[in-house]
């Protein structure tokens, strides 16, 4: 019984007796300074870099956003190719819904009154012909404009080409106007409404800030220096902030990113969480390795003639696509990242002592002797 | 030679002799309890908070998703302004493709038979005129409706305004119907098909869950209480779940987020990974600082008359844009985060001992004396 | 005064005297080997797994991307239902803008010359009638096709159904062609231009790689083995890489993900950051629990007849929606994650020594005796 009692006591002792490493104090101010200085460095790293610069004590969340855009402005074109024409939003913004990506038409090749019929191909090495034998019925060249009918017909008084079944007359897209047709599009404005959410922190924000009133919104225009909070942007201003020239870009089209950065530190009062706008051209302007430079696409308006035949107006639209890109990471104090970073830094504090100790080891014999000679200098605590 | 041998032996000793800190056991149950209790707190933090609550041992990945939507329903309108008209999906859903963002038309201002021509401006301070001198040819006011022709013409029998070149007749968008035209849109339903992927974990999921069969899908309707897994939503229900009234919202339009949360713990059987639906209005309803409240956009249908002249029907469409927003983070056990979190926690365990030790230090002299008097009580282990 | 001086000196001593734990070297090669081996394991984990495999020393950022797509190709259809017709991009790509999600029409049910009028419902259990009493004026069945007028009219010579107000004639969508109408769509090609940004690292990339020249781009076609960098994809190839058959998929439609993975290690020269393409069908093909399998939507082209009446051609479009999904995480050496991971690993190194010590503890008495008997074997350093 005494044995079991002894065992029990041992257990209690093992569990509840406090155990601490014996340490040795070396009264050498030089070594002590190095030691404390290294500790200071670690502490500075933790406080200065990890906490202040990197905010590593924060949990993070990425933004969820919703964007609406509304373009305003009108233009008037009067060129030799087309009738004088007035353009409003319903004409030049595609698609019309005002999504996060909208396209403003600035230049175009219009091919009106196309219908399903037969016409001669444009002359090229593979389409010119002498007689019907050169044209294969049903053949379709991927670089051609339609399905060959097998006939060889006059393209002009001097050239004969294979006839194709296609939407005729064919589009002549080499005759793109040198100056953008809707050059005045540079004065259009766009209102961007953006609301964001950080679901983890239950934070909701808008790019129309609380301190802005309606009368200001009716007349303001974004300017990085004077009106950095105005959500109304002049297209010319956007393009020039991206380092491009609107008139240049308008001829062949391009893609322009309106980048809204919602990176926020939510530890402070939420009112400090502002959007930051930046602008960048997203397509490549003039690189060597570029296919289909600029930005264009084809769409058609379909009509029916009185006798029921379908015709269409094919439009090869060149213009600027504006992509509103919202990104951001919000940080807020979180216990787990704090613990992890502090813990890791503590490891380094203990590493410091280990490291200095190993240096000390090399002076082993010397110190040892020292202990023997002057017990006062080295005091083993406890 | 004996010297080199001695050096070699020292190296071996240095490498393979095990080195351990001398520790001291203090047989004080009070201090021991505090020590163990602090250790317990650290362990509880690690096990309870880091592992169970925060799941810090997991690697995470964000969701990639694909959404299709399909609206069903039809409406009938019979107002004094317009002919009686039947509306189906192809009429009121814009764009028709059923993307993650779809717009349901609920109200509108229709301006039919517009053509490129000349008409008097609406009377306002800047557009009323007495004679042609008040109107400048080619001038276009950003708040006006077109390009001034330089003539001053009769707007009504009493008012003269500048004539403009524009799509005439001009749109009168102040006459928005007070009650939504397509009020019955609240009974439309939308089927949302959503498939998600977590590429890092090679997980694929769908919002049509495996245990759901086709016959259920044909008749079910989402209800948080009774049918939480049904992917078919009644528009009215969505809007009311977001805390809004459909008929109110339908008049001036708005944006409604259908938020699908795919946050999952993939450590358990994958079947537990379910989508959670929530609904939130994304635009601001009635704030002080609001420009263009609600949601509307203009689009046009283009026609050609028998004599080839282009006319259009301009529609200022008010309605609700539904944005399906899919987000989520999946977590799965990962060795690196586990190690990092355990390691950091271990640092704190060692911090505990350091801390208690420094407390102990203050009792230095006392304990020291103690050792001298009763060698039995304090036993230095090895 | 001497007291205060003594206190001051104590402070200095406390601050600048270096303090190191007493350690004990156990000259047992067996224990030493186990000790060093365990340390080696920890070091191997840190160097091998954390650094090389998991790259845990890196900060990460997620990709921001912009996508343009351009489909090329034309088709010719000649079926009994429709007139022979030539199809080009403006006809079969919806929407036309070339966004990150584009739809290629492959099959359709066309209902031409619909107008707002009255026609008999399709016969079904709820729509067949004997006389007008069976039909309720103004009633609209969600599964029906319009608003009942209250009349019972002849659907055919044998069947009477309720008359509805709707777009008439009604669409008969059960007569979907068994073979895709635009079967030749499999030979269309799509050029995908994708530019990405990692804002944290100020990295910009394009999927048209720097070493590719324009002449190559004009003739190349993506092939995982021979042309893995070409941004031009044949639709048939995309579908077959996703493990599907184009002709099968074209009949009822579907959704196909073109997944571009920009995961990069930016520590190395940026040229190594290449996009990796993969393809996956995103909708469910033939599951048991599927509503509305495939992918289709309805849209209409509106016309006006000479007498001003609006007619439309309703098209139920079946086809393949291609979603370009860009994802990726870039990593670059960061001081915070490095410190955190190293720190955590260091904790484990110290854990090793604690662990071995506790093993040693069990041999307590034995070792203790040992010390007494042979002071030489156990040398306490310092």
Automatic annotation (TrEMBL), chains A, B, C:
It is a multi-pass membrane protein. ATP binds at residues 70-72, 189, 296-298, 316. Disulfide bonds join 119-168, 129-152, 135-162, 220-230, 264-273. Glycans are attached at residue 187. GO terms for cellular component: plasma membrane; postsynapse. It is found in: Cell membrane; Membrane. One of its GO terms (molecular function) is ATP binding. Receptor for ATP that acts as a ligand-gated ion channel. Belongs to the P2X receptor family. This is P2X purinoceptor. It comes from Lates calcarifer. The gene is P2RX4.
